[in-house]
Amino acid sequence: MCMMNSSMKILLMSVWFVSCHCHSVIAADSPKLPGEMGKFVENHCVACHEGEAAEAGLDLTKLNGQLENQATLDRWIRIFDRVHNGEMPPKESHDITGAELKTFLNQSGKWLNDFQKERWSKIGRVQGRRLTNLQLERSLHQLLGVDIPLESLMPEEQRTAGFTTVANGQPMSHFQLEEHLKVVDAALDNAFQRAILNDQLFKKKFDAKGLVRKNPKRRTREPELIDDFAVTWSSRLIFYGRIPATTARKDGWYRFTIRAKSLNTPKDHGVWCTVRTGKCVSSAPLLNWVGALEATDRVQEWTFETWLPRGSMLEVRPGDDTLKMGRFQGGQVGTGEGGPQNLPGVAMESIVMEEIHYGLDDEGIRETLFGDLKVKAKGKDWQQAQLQSTNHKADAKRLMLRFAERAFRRPINKEDVQPFIDLVFNELDAKTPLLAALRTGYRALLCSPRFLYFEEPPGQLDDYALASRLSYFLWNAPPDEELLKLAESKILSSQDEIRRQVRRMLNEPQGKTFVKDFAAQWLDLSEIDFTTPDRRLYPGFDVIVQQSMLAETETYLEEMIRKNLSVSLLIDSKYTYLNERLARFYGIKNVSSDQMQRVSLKPEDHRGGLLTHGSIMKVTANGTTTSPVLRGVWVSERLLGVEIPPPPAGVAAIEPDIRGAKTIREMLEKHKSNTACASCHVNIDPPGFALENFDPAGRWRERYIKIKGRKRVPGTPIDASHELPSGEKFKDIKQFRSIVAAKPAELAENVAKKLVSYGTGAPVTFADRTEIEEVVTRTSKNNYGLRSIIEEVAASELFRTK
To answer: Does residue 116 sit in the same domain as residue 211?
Structure first.
């Protein structure tokens, strides 16, 4: 009980830390509109924006100048932007001189900019922010040397401005504090157990006889033995292909080496198979993705690594939805039933199952926790072990100080750590064994706000704070030894050094995680499995296609960073990355192998650029229909940098409609007759219609498809033409891509904004715009290369200050 109370006290310090350091309020009188602003608004705006009938619900007679109110600040920024972009006041309704417009924009721009800069000088641009779930997991992994998937133990996070890293979307409630404590306990228990018990890692090779059903006469869902191979046929039976022999005896990471070939192989490709894990019973129906393989007529070998909870097993089966599917009665498969049906199948020669560890080995964890102290285990209960020490308090203090410096990611003030040391001493005085007392101390340190939160006082970040910001930006993990040494030498804050470190860090093995982590939120790739395309409308889509789509996008972005390619390739290119299964799904020929490979595109492929990737098409549709509005908003905000405000109250949404593009256009034209809607739809509709030729599964289509009876029948032809706000017209996605890709500076600006939001924890706002423009200008000499943008964002003043 004492341990719980002590740790909860430390956790509650987090709430105090946030309230004292993150939510300061500036007391100020509500200022009047500066200079000629009030006169401009009165003369040119109030006539349309007054009272209950005010256009777009904006009553300027009630909008004051108190910018401390975030909603008021946002309104004035929106007003500035609409005037700056020429959207307001309407040209046909007012005779406004150029001098009046210039004066209004200069005065209002300076007013907004000065207010934000003044506020930031006191409290910082970024609120106090904490580690995200992913960052907490990787921090505990690095600190303790463990590798268990801790993120799955935490409550789901909300995304603000698209990212979980944004500070003002990171609440810290008592519930979340308790959940944090559970995660810390899970990590510590695993570390202490491995450090003390030093369990032997499991390894076993299963031949075909070891993989198949135990009773050949029994109808089951396990593989059957044919010619010394464990065989599973193509079928839609759930869990068919489960292999009970691979059931994990304990939670852990496992490496599976599979040797297999195909049976009844199709003429133009192999038998694509899924490798998944789960309990494979009706009470636990979910399966976890591990990987895919394309089996051919000759035996090949594949290696997969996955986390396997105790009681879960491997499932290996043909998973290509285009294959001929078997018919089996009663939900079970009898020996020999698949052969007469001439079904494609996978024949496994053997599987090697090997328990592995990432991070430190057991000896490394032992040194991390106990230093040079010897540990004496007693049986299989690690809590009964004893740490051998001649001076408990001296050894505990030494280990606590060492652990605190690593946990807090900077040199420590011994006075700040003393309360944690006193906690351990109190435990020792109460006759608590050194092992348990030390665990209590480590637990308290990991509940400290200095571990859970980023230590970033207002103003310029010191080198250690910059090291953490840089490492969590690119790795979502604590700084490594090189970053900490540079921080100690006080040379990390040099802009040239930051650029060098970005290049180094992206080239490190950890750097491979940057694309996956960033794209999961920026492009919503984490939501790709939220919907499943209707099989009747969009046949051929399967989990292998979906995972290949993710690999296409991630591999494409990795190459853009590695080769520092222009951001124009986000919109248009003449190549992509495919494997045989995804190429066949797209209708692209002459691609073989289950490995992702660079493929040159032809005009008839209708693809090019990340914009046309299947992953993007899928996350912007609902599985049944497409909506130009939903896709248009997504493309505008994620790729084009055009923020779309929420729709006005009382305006009905346009629902997706597969009756035909003409019908959708008519609905949207009527929708746009509402002036409150028109200003947004001028940006939303063009990219939305440009993508209408792609169905919810990511395939190209010339017409909408409908179901009539049990048949798919072609519907209305698709019209993807539209006009951009600039007046440029396009007839299809190809012309749209050409127009947009020709403006790389605008694309670079959007990417820079997303990186700043993700990396600093605060969305880009009005006073950031000048610095963003400077970032983009500095990348122009490298043709707005994606890696250059990352480097310049990290070297910018925005990134190097709180």
So the answer is: no
In a domain, 11, yes or no: no
347 membership: H or E segment, kind and range: strand 345-356
> Do residues 79 and 216 both lie within one domain?
no
State which residues form the domain around 264: 203-356
Q: What CATH number should be reported for the domain holding residue 211?
A: 2.60.120
Each residue's pLDDT tens digit, 193-248: 999 998 889 999 999 999 999 999 999 999 999 999 999 999 999 999 999 999 99
* pLDDT for the residue numbered 197: 94
Residue 223 covered by a domain: yes
Euclidean distance between CA atoms 208 and 369, whole angstroms: 43
Q: Predicted confidence band at 30 (pLDDT cuts at 50, 70, 90)?
A: very low
Confidence of residue 663 (pLDDT cuts 50, 70, 90): low
174 burial (CB, 10 Å; 0-12 / 13-18 / 19+) is exposed
Domains in the chain, number: 3
Which one, of 601, 492, 616, lies nearest residue 552 by Cα? Answer: 616
Residue among 741, 757, 742 at smallest CA distance from 796? 757
What is the mean pLDDT of the segment spanning 352-380? 95
Whether the link from the prior residue into 89 is cis, omega within 30° of 0, is yes
Rounded Cα distance, 798 and 802, in Å: 8
266: amino acid identity, one letter:
P
Is residue 557 included in any domain, yes or no?
yes
Distance CA 549, CA 558 (A): 14
328 and 218, same domain (yes or no): yes
Both 618 and 706 in one domain: the answer is: yes
Shared domain check, 593 and 688: yes
Q: Last residue of some domain: 725, 741, 757?
A: 741
Distances from the Cα of 286 to the Cα of 276, 283, 332, 535, angstroms: 10, 9, 19, 19
pLDDT digits (tens, 9 = 90+) for 666-720: 666 766 666 667 778 889 999 999 999 999 999 999 999 888 888 889 988 999 9
The DSSP 8-state label assigned to residue 130 in this structure reads B
- The last residue of one of the domains, among 356, 374, 405, is 356
pLDDT at 673: 63
User: CA triplet 695, 698, 704: central angle to 5 degrees?
Assistant: 15
Q: State the chain's mean pLDDT as an integer.
A: 91
533's CB contacts (< 8 A; 6+ apart) are: 541, 618, 621, 623, 624, 695, 696, 697
For 88-228, list the strands marked E by DSSP.
203-207, 224-226
Structural domain includes residue 713? yes
pLDDT, tens digit (0-9, with 9 covering 90-100), for 279-307: 999 999 999 999 999 999 999 999 999 99
Question: How crowded is residue 408: how many other Cβ atoms within 10 Å of its Cβ?
Answer: 20
- Check whether residue 116 and residue 216 sit in a common domain: no
Are 576 and 688 contained in the same domain?
yes
Cβ partners under 8 Å of residue 493, min gap 6:
460, 461, 462, 463, 466, 800
Angstrom distance (rounded) from CA 135 to CA 477: 6
112 and 221 belong to one structural domain = no
522-540: pLDDT as tens digits: 999 999 999 899 999 999 9
